[in-house]
Amino acid sequence: MTAAITEPDAAETAPDCLVEQDGHVLIVTMNRPHRRNALSSEMLRIMESAWDRVNDDPEIRVCILTGAGGYFCAGMDLKTANEKPPSESFEDGSYDPTVIKGLLKGFRLTKPLIAAVEGPAIAGGTEILQGTDIRVAGESARFGVAEARWSLYPMGGSAVRLPRQIPYTVAAELLLTGRTLGAPEAKELGLIGHVVPDGEALAKAREIADQIAANGPLAVQAILRTMRMSEGKHEDECWADDARIGAAVFSSADAKEGPRAFLEKRAPRFEGR
Ligand SMILES: C[C@H]([C@H](O)CC(=O)SCCNC(=O)CCNC(=O)[C@H](O)C(C)(C)COP(=O)(O)OP(=O)(O)OC[C@H]1O[C@@H](n2cnc3c(N)ncnc32)[C@H](O)[C@@H]1OP(=O)(O)O)[C@H]1CC[C@H]2[C@@H]3CCC4=CC(=O)CC[C@]4(C)[C@H]3CC[C@]12C
To answer: What's the ipTM?
Structure first.
């Protein structure tokens, strides 16, 4: 990303995004609660490097994306966008919106990403959600793609992704009206997987992350690779890659350790090889 915006809140000294590793889990926290964690250039830059860290560091097996202060993300910062409209960056070619890595558009993690949502996840907030694999929300969370209300376009990928993730007619209505959904409705539609009491989304996400981190990392990453590779394809186009990816897992040392641990009635010790 080349465009930079000077933040007006110079008093804010904490980084716009916090990245913390706990064991095999990386926790990425969008951190501009005074603006409902609206996306800044700095936040997106930190998220981009966090995604590289997830993909490159074998010690990291799962990632959680959350927001500070009881909010997930209110999308693009509409205040700074008034000072420097994104259209300028699109037009002068300094920003290519075909890949928005921070928002996971045109770029995916090779490890599972769990969203822990509290409060609003609006516009860019619901857009990045669609790039996550497992989604947990507090019961007061709200979701929506509000761009059309401001005559903007959901540049984070929702016009393509949302109709693939929830029923077409609901996706069309959300994208075209900008209406928001509560967490129970989002769960009913399959946009999220879990609704928990407010304030407990991160704990639930952590519980799921720990379950995944205890599994064979090669198996987990291979399953995810096949899921990503086969998206939108006829199943007959997928079996060759499915078999190749699966066979590599069966050939690993971890694939011997798992059944051995079962026989010996102990927890497996996976090493990712
Ligand atoms: C193109 C993508 C993306 O698709 C575009 C968007 O995301 S458009 C964003 C639309 N957002 C909204 O419609 C949400 C607006 N907010 C609300 O509706 C409500 O605030 C709320 C429901 C979220 C919360 O309501 P509350 O009642 O709880 O709180 P409220 O009192 O309203 O607010 C509290 C204070 O928070 C402030 N606030 C809230 N939301 C925002 C916001 N979105 N922006 C700024 N401030 C916000 C509110 O004003 C209150 O403050 P006060 O001081 O108390 O008044 C684009 C997504 C990211 C873009 C990239 C960003 C970085 C870039 C920079 C560049 O220079 C180049 C371009 C780019 C890379 C840019 C490119 C486009 C994106 C990818």
So the answer is: 0.96
